[in-house]
Design a protein that fits this description.
Elements lengths: L3 E2 L4 E2 L2 H4 L1 H10 L6 E5 L8 E7 L2 E7 L5 E5 L14 E3 L2 E3 L6 E3 L4 E3 L3 H4 L14 E5 L2 E5 L7 H5 L2 H9 L21 H10 L7 H10 L15 E5 L6 E6 L3 H7 L1 H8 L1 H11 L2 H6 E7 L6
Antiparallel strand pairs: 1-2, 3-12, 4-5, 4-7, 5-6, 8-9, 9-10, 11-12, 13-14, 14-15
């Protein structure tokens, strides 16, 4: 309580720098929250996998033969080495490169070199990596270490209404573009979460200008695009989720995405169908440049 003043909104800088606090967050937040792992279309086929993190725990996200998705700790139960070192791909099994312990795509230990000689009586079924709970929402894959946490639908709560603005504009839903991009940002995790949750203020100032200029389509003059200032900001009554939009002014969307995407989002048949599906013209065509965080790190 001494670090956060809920009445004024002021925060003690220690929330970004205190190592003891961070260790508590790893246990109490990242160990109990639903964390985004990726999109279902990134692993469409049986054996497709990608690696990720839950807090500082490395995990594997793997599509099963029955279509199920499993998330388990990417750590061999023998000596703690990574089971898989690739970012993603397709595999029938995974073998630890240290001593050759092999696991199937469900994370079950299936082979141990010199098992009878080195580990007589070993029960392989007891030595698979820790499994996380897995649930999905509109194509997004979430995982949770806590067996007692509320289900994903309850956890997302009110935020689903705002997530649907992006995820449910068409019957086909959304699809992830192939490829992997990584950004390493030397900062506390709350900086990124806060930026996407509530800080649209910086979008039209110097901090975003370099990015906007780099992506500005030919023929578009930035000096003619005044930053929008009218919008709405949303905060969940429970869960720490937040989102916001500009209303009716497409300038920032135009500067970032270009005229074709802006037109698709705001005009024509696709925009009209989105409005019908989402229940209003405002939701389908007038809310621009959405920013959002599903607590703690889905942004």
């Amino acid at each position: 309580a001494e670090l956060v003043d809920e009445r004024t909104g002021r925060l003690d800088p220690r929330i970004y720098t205190d190592e003891a606090l961070y260790e508590q967050e790893l246990e109490r937040i990242f160990g109990r929250s639903w964390l985004l792992m990726g999109h279902e279309t990134q692993i469409p086929k049986a054996g497709d996998f990608m690696t990720n993190y839950m807090g500082e725990d490395p995990v594997m996200v793997v599509r099963q033969k029955n279509g199920e998705i499993r998330v388990f700790l990417n750590q061999c139960r023998h000596r703690g080495m990574r089971i898989c070192r690739a970012d993603g791909g397709n595999a029938k099994s995974f073998t630890c490169s240290y001593h050759g312990w092999a696991y199937d795509t469900g994370g079950n230990l299936v082979s141990v070199p010199f098992e009878e000689q080195a580990f007589p009586g070993l029960r392989k079924e007891d030595w698979g990596p820790l499994q996380a709970r897995v649930e999905t929402y509109k194509g997004l894959i979430f995982a949770n270490w806590d067996a007692d946490a509320p289900d994903l639908d309850t956890y997302l709560g009110e935020a689903k209404f705002y997530m649907d603005h992006m995820l449910d504009r068409t019957e086909a839903g959304t699809e992830a573009i192939p490829g992997i991009q990584k950004w390493v940002i030397p900062c506390n995790w709350k900086f990124a979460a806060e930026q996407f949750c509530s800080d649209m203020y910086h979008a039209g100032t110097t901090s975003h200008l370099s990015g906007i200029l780099a992506g500005l389509p030919d023929g578009v003059d930035l000096s003619e695009l005044a930053p929008p200032t009218e919008g709405i900001q949303y905060r969940a009554t429970w869960g720490g989720h937040g989102s916001g939009f500009y209303i009716g002014d497409p300038n920032l969307l135009l500067a970032i995405m270009g005229p074709k995407v802006t037109e698709y989002w705001t005009q024509g048949t696709a925009a009209e169908k989105a409005s019908e599906r989402l229940g209003s013209t405002e939701r389908g065509q007038q809310l621009m440049a959405q920013h959002m965080t599903i607590f703690p790190t889905c942004s």
